[in-house]
Amino acid sequence: MPDAVQPLESPADGPCLACVGCGDDAAQVVRRAAELARQAKVAWHAVYVETPRLQRLPAARRQRILETLRLAETLGAVTAVLADGDIAHAIAEHARGLGVTRIVLGRGRPARPWRPALFDRLGASDPRCELVETGGGARGVRRHLGAPAIARPRRYLLGAAASALTALVTMPLLPYFDLANIAMLFLLTVVLVAVRVGREAAVVSTLIGGAALMVAARRFSYGAGDLQYAVTFIVMLTVGLITSGLTAGLRYQAKVARHREARSRALYEFARALSGALVTGQVFDITRDFIERTFAAHATLLLPDGAGRLAYPAGAGRPGVPVMSVIDMGLAQWSFDHASAAGSGTATMPSNTFFYLPLVAPMRTRGVLVIWPAHGRAILVPEQRTQLDTFGALAAIALERVHYVEVAREAELRMASERLRNSLLAALSHDVRTPLTALVGLSEALALSRPPLASAQLELAEALHDEATRMSTLVSNLLEMARMQSGAVTLNLQWYALEEAVGSALHACRRQLGERSIATELAPDLPLVRYDAVLIERVLCNLLENAAKYTPPQARIAIRASTEDGELAVAVEDDGPGLAPGSEEAIFDKFTRGERESSIPGVGLGLAICRAIMDAHGGSIRAGASAHGGAAFVFRLALGTPPAPPVLESSTS
Fold first, then answer.
1. Continuous segment of H or E residues that includes residue 391
2. How many alpha carbons fall within 13 Å on the CB side of residue 422?
3. Is the peptide bond before 451 cis (omega within 30 degrees of 0)?
């Protein structure tokens, strides 16, 4: 039966590591690690070490290992597959890189006289971790295990002991074997020591073995003074050095390969973690944690505000990490503005304690990664710097992605709000328009009633008619804007002379214009233009009404038209107070007025309707200052090629 999961006190806040093997208890190890991590409320990982022997496993067993790793992922683990000939060493190195404080493993193969069990070898490799053994027949305990790695003096002793043991074994065989055969046994010992322990131990083993061989030669009178034994000694020493050198080179290459694999795995895990980040805070935490874990350095992210100024994040200070001064923040701002690394190990203030890496995304610089190396400038070696730059690029892309996710979310919210508002406006305006039309008609009938009303009553009736008409106009604007936004407007495009639209607009706005002076300056050679006459008249009416609202009763309003660069340009100008600086674009937004608090009637839809009509025509409209200091609105329409007039045939009698 599987072991019952017993609550264990967490030795520290570090994560938990499950060692996935090829045995039948692999799934049980994963579940046990997941349960322990849940109890301790820490993250956990699962690792499988693939040795050359395990690579030759049957396909079914390898598939079962992959299924176990997928099980670990579903339970919340971060998985990794390592390639190494020494399982204990690979697990210990991986655990140290992750900051693991507890390792869960299965029973594994039993110990042999020449090779301890994996449980004991793991304890010797990393004494800081607590080991939990689970599975069939496992001890089910945890304990601090650990012995320091083989120290240099101990390596010398192992080399000497190996040759001494060979001498003890071979001395009784001297009467029966030739001394050359005995020398081969010593040579084999030197080779094994060089492979297993190292170069220094191989040299010591060569010296001890050569001395033992010399003693044996003298004792059995094999011509100890001959040069051949000196040659044998030199050959043994040379073979030992060559073998140990080759072994050291292979070990170094294996170490480099492991480091490359670790860097690739770190980048993969970092990219995978960032792919799930949806807010800036998640990118901040993920980047800081991975930088600190991968590079053994403290890190923080400085992000800009709306004005492009970097700010130190609240709560980012932690014990043992130096606080950034004003000078440090200034250098970080310089790195952000110039998109160039600064600080420790760079050409810009290299004496600074921190290293500043700008997070340059495809569109813009998204922030600065500030790193405080725990081991001086070790982080700036070429391999580390390359990986750090890659980390920075991934973080920058993640920040840019999160930014556009937020922009898209806000745009979607605005669109939904706009649709709801347009629907409400259309519904309310439609329901209000009918009674308003009736109210306008009743007020007109009241003013024309017989017998005639008294002067005071007639004044009230006319005031009622004016207000009802104004309210009807507002409702018409609301309906017009709702129709424009919904795309339900179909243009009736015909070729017209602009003079017709100007005349119709002036006639329709005569009441609103009052005593204001109107000047029309239309170029004499204006061609026909293709537009919707009703809508362009609406544009002119809205511009004239807008000028009448914001100018005094004796103001001057001018309508000018000319052709410019293949377009018809129509301007409506006044000599009133003009526009507020910086509001030239904002006044075209819906429900935006020239003055926020004012007795001037209106809801701020007239100019928005003008822009919507011009957009539907493929034209443009802009606002600015007139030559007399007032406001000027200019809209443009493409001229096109008007149709040729029909040719009349003359008849001859």
1. helix 382-447
2. 16
3. yes
Where does 171-226 have alpha helices with state H?
Answer: 179-196, 199-219
Query: What distance in Å separates the CA atoms of residue 243 and residue 27, rounded to the nearest whole number?
Result: 42
E strand or H helix that includes residue 529: strand 529-531
Give the whole-angstrom CA distance, residue 482 versus residue 425. 7
Q: Which helix (H) or strand (E) is 613 found in, with range?
A: helix 606-616
Q: Taking the C-alpha atoms of 355, 361, 364 and 368 in order, what is their torsion angle to the nearest 10 degrees?
A: -20
Within 10 Å of residue 249's Cβ, how many Cβ atoms? 10
pLDDT for 373-408, tens place per residue? 776 666 666 677 788 888 888 999 998 988 888 888
Q: Cα separation of 81 and 87, whole Å? A: 12
- Predicted confidence at residue 447, as pLDDT, reads 76
Select from 434, 398, 388 the least CA-distant residue to 294.
Answer: 388
Q: Residue 13 and residue 516: Cα distance in Å, rounded?
A: 80
- Nearest in space to 300 (alpha carbons), one of 383, 250, 371: 371
Residue 369: partners with Cβ closer than 8 Å, 6 or more residues away: 287, 291, 299, 300, 301, 302, 356, 357, 358, 359, 391, 392, 395
Is pLDDT of 635 > 90?
Answer: yes
- The better pLDDT of the pair 430, 164 is held by 164
Q: What pLDDT digit, counting tens, does each position of 521-546 carry?
A: 898 888 899 998 888 888 898 899 88
**Cα separation of the two ends of the chain:** 123
Cα dist. 390→266, 297, 310, 381, 385 in Å? 11, 16, 22, 14, 9
pTM metric for this prediction = 0.51
Which range has the worst mean pLDDT, 23-37, 239-253, 380-394, 566-580? 239-253
Cβ-based neighbour number of residue 64 at 10 Å = 16
Q: Which residues pair with 517 in a beta bridge?
A: 556
Tens digit of each residue's pLDDT (9 = 90 or more) over 547-574: 888 888 888 999 999 998 889 999 999 9
Mean pLDDT of the chain: 77
Distance between CA atoms of residues 503 and 300, nearest Å: 67
Question: CA-CA distances (angstroms) from residue 79 to 60, 74, 92, 414?
Answer: 20, 10, 15, 41
**Nearest Cα to Cα of residue 29 among 144, 143, 140, 146:** 140
**547 in Cβ contact with 576 (< 8 Å):** yes
Task: Give the per-residue pLDDT at 320.
Answer: 58
Question: What is the DSSP track for 335-385?
Answer: HHHHT--EETTSSSSTT-SSEEEEEE-SSSEEEEEEEEETTTTGGGSHHHH
CB neighbours of residue 420 within 10 Å? 10
Of the pLDDT bands very low, low, confident and very high (cuts 50, 70, 90), residue 637 is very high
Q: What is the distance between the alpha carbons of residues 614 and 531, in angstroms, rounded to a whole number?
A: 10
Instruction: Return the number of other C-beta atoms located less than 10 Å from residue 456's C-beta.
Output: 8
- Give residue 634's pLDDT band: very low, low, confident or very high (50, 70, 90): very high
Q: Which domains does the chain have, with CATH numbers?
A: 16-144 (3.40.50.620), 152-254 (no CATH), 280-408 (3.30.450.40), 494-638 (3.30.565.10)
Taking only the tens place, the pLDDT of each residue in 433-478 is 677 777 778 877 877 777 877 888 888 887 887 777 777 776 776 6
Tokens of 468: 């009802």
